[in-house]
Structure formats: C-alpha cells, structure tokens
Amino acid sequence: MSRIALVTGGNRGIGAACAEALLASGHTVVVASRGGTAPEGMVGVACDVTDTASVDDAFTEVEASVGPVGVLVANAGITADTLLMRMTDDDIASVIDTNLVGSIRVARRAARGMLKQRWGRIILISSVVGMTGSAGQVNYAASKAGLVGVGRSLARELGSRGITANVVAPGFVNTDMTAVLDEAQRAQIISQVPLGRYAAAAEVAAVVDFLASEAAGYVTGALVPVDGGLGMGH
Amino acid sequence: MGILEGKTLLITGVLTDASIAFHVARLAQDEGATIVLSSFGRALSLTKRSAGRLPQPASVVELDVTDEAGLAALADSLRAEGVTRLDGVLHAIGFAPTDALGGNFLNTGWPDVATAVHVSAFSLKSLAMACRPLLGQGGSVVGLDFDATVAWPKYDWMGVAKAAFESTARYLARDLGPEGIRVNLVAAGPIRTMAASHIPGFDEFESIWATRAPLGWNVADPEPAARACIALFSDWFPATTGEIVHVDGGVHSQGA
Predict the structure, then answer these.
(1) What is the ipTM of this complex?
(2) Residue ranges per domain, chain A?
(3) pTM
(4) B102: nearest CA in chain A?
(5) Is the Cβ of A234 closer than 8 Å to some Cβ of chain B?
(6) Which domains does chain B have, with CATH numbers?
(7) CB atoms A28 and B46 under 8 Å
C-alpha cells in the first residue's frame, strides 16, 4: 500500500538512495533536509533535526500539503572524526545532537501521526561502528549505538498501535561521508569485510524499503546489519 | 468518438495515481477531452509526476484556492496554456487540520474549522468564479463530495465542511444556471487516496461500507466515482444541476 514516507537527510547518500527506493515502491516520498530541495516527483521540506521547532514545522507542512507521515527514515547524520584527546565539546555535542537526539526529535513528531493512523514504520539508520567501535569516532559510534536503545524503546511503546521501529546498521557505503577516507584507510576497512567491498547505497536502501513495507509488519525492535559481514558477532 | 470529444477541462486535486481526480483526468483524455491540471505548493511536484503517467501530456498550473491573487489570475494562467474556453472544472479539493478530525469534535477551535470550511467548501465558489470568464453555455462544474446528511465516525468537522459544500453547490447552481453552467456533486463512498490518509480510523468506513452497500464497495477503486464525473461533464445530463449523484454502492439509500 502506498504510504507517505519522510526521509531526513534524504538529499544525498544513503538517504537519497532510500528516497528513490521508496518512490520506486510506490510511496509518496518527502525529502527533509536543511536545504529543503527534492528531486522531481518527490516533495521537499526544510528541516533541521537539531531544532524541535523546525522539525515540528516540517511535519505540519507535510501534513497540510500531502498527509500524515506513515514511514519515517531517520537518516540525517554527520561525523566529526578525531581522536578523543583532541575531540572538543562541540565535536561531541554536535554529532550526538544531530544523529541521536535529532532522530529522537523526528521520531517523536512522526509518532503523533502514526498513532492516529494506527500504522507506522520507524527506521533508524545506525552504523556498524555503533557495535564494533571505531577509533576516532567516539562521538559518532556513541550516537549510532544510542539509536539501538531508541529503536527498541519505540518498539515497546508503540507496538500495540501497529507501529514498528527498527534499526538498520550499514557497514561502509560509498557516499560523501566515506569519500574523505584515504586509500590506506579504505584498503584497511575492505580487508575486514568478508564480502571484500563497500556497499552501494542502494543495497542499504533495499533493506529500508523492505522494513517500510507491509511484508515487514512483524519485524520490530530489530537491528539489521547491511555490512558485508564486517560487524558479525553483535 | 468519446463522449467528451472536443471539450477542455480543468482538473484540480491530482496528487497521486490513486487520486480520484487522476482517474477523472485519465478517463477524460480517453474520452477525447483536453485537460489542464492544477496543484499548489508542495504538492506541485507530485502532480507533475502524476501528469506524466496520464495517457497524454497535460500541463499543470499553480492554484491555491485560498489565495485571492492566484484565483484572480487563474483565467490568464489557463489562457497562457492555450485554453480559450473551458467546458468543465473538477473540484477535488479538501483539507481539515488534524485537530478537526478523528474524534476531537467537541474540542476543535474556530480557526481550524474555518480552515476546513474555507478550503473544502467556500473554494467551490472561488473556483467556479475564477473559471467563469472561460466557462460558457453548457459548462459543467463537478465537485467530489462525501454524504453530509448524517454524522460519520471520525469525520467530524470535515463532515460539517461537506455539508457547507453541498449547500454551496445548490446556491451556485441557482446563480450560475442562467449562464448555462451546471453545478453537481458526486458523493463517493470511501476510497483509499492520499486525502483519505488524513482521516484517522478510515478503516471504520471500510467496514461500514462492506456491511451496508447492496452492490458491495471496493475502497481501492476510484474508477466508479471518476466515471460519474465524466458522465456529468458530458452532454448526457443537460438539464441536471444542484444534484448530488451517489457513487457509493447504494449505502445512502439503506437504513441498515
């Protein structure tokens, strides 16, 4: 069934791939990003996940012009990588505020409409490093691990109203976020991946698309890795 | 030869290919009409995408029925798309803020009710008047209604707006009749469209229709409602105005 799907950070990377996959599955797709733009055929809305009022305005606009959001892909995320000794308070706070608290903000606002509809799909985009840890990414890994607690709590709170909440943990994907890594780093990572390669963003999006579907109606509180085997054992 | 051969229609309210208006547009083109779509704000991108899925290309003009300036400019926007005459216009527009639907009837404030009535009822007059310079003798205004003679679960202030909508159609029929313009509504049963997703508890309607419709009812099929619109746009209802045609499997005629 066609739903209204909202993807935060849906303007590029994994978010953009998710938006395309959901569109191809017949949903009406809203791309929420700071810039507020969207490709042809999707609705664009300006949304800053670090600002509750911005999140509220974005959802209100979507509800007024399109309808209540049934599928939320909380994907907006940033990195501020540096070894802990050099990590500033702002590095820590900004990453946690955007990635973790931002996802809580959008989930909180989206749940309102989902509860009324008695149907919803909340999909939180975590990361393999949330479970494995990653040197230089204390802030990022913390924010991504935190999403597991968010997803499972939402699954318990909202399950009786037909709303599922799941966490997808991508491994290394070719996007702007990983483009900053140098050749040596990339080779080192790939050597740890049983499948011996990076993921394409579409491969993560395919799992998100499944979780958003009617077929995934009994999957909730799950942590689904899409990491080529990198994070096995968690 | 289709029954709308040579006619030009303005079709509002096409959001996705599940929209009733989309099916009106599709059938209208199949029956030989030229159509222009209208949309507004954020929905524009969706309407353009849906326009690409019609049998023939159709241009999309921007129209917010609550915007006086836009309404005043509509006739010119249509002329800019090559429209010299309109034979019909489909009103497929409605909105009620979340607080005005879903079981909150006793607590809804006037501003939210005003919005619902403005967008869903008054807009019928606004749209008809905006199109009037291009509508001629034989012009047909068709609106999509939901039976407002009774109260429904959860529909709340949208139901009140539809009651106003039905009455507006009757008064418009009175005042535009002398110009040869007919104004009629199609009161459809519940259909799973984007608009329906605004109504919490839509499933209740589905159960009601399943038990009460003598002909049965398919909430996933907008075509019967769309066909009724096509009929009203055609020359086959020449002396009918101020009418409400029920396309609801017969529910309106049954007590239980």
Answers:
(1) 0.76
(2) 4-226
(3) 0.87
(4) A116
(5) no
(6) 8-251 (3.40.50.720)
(7) yes
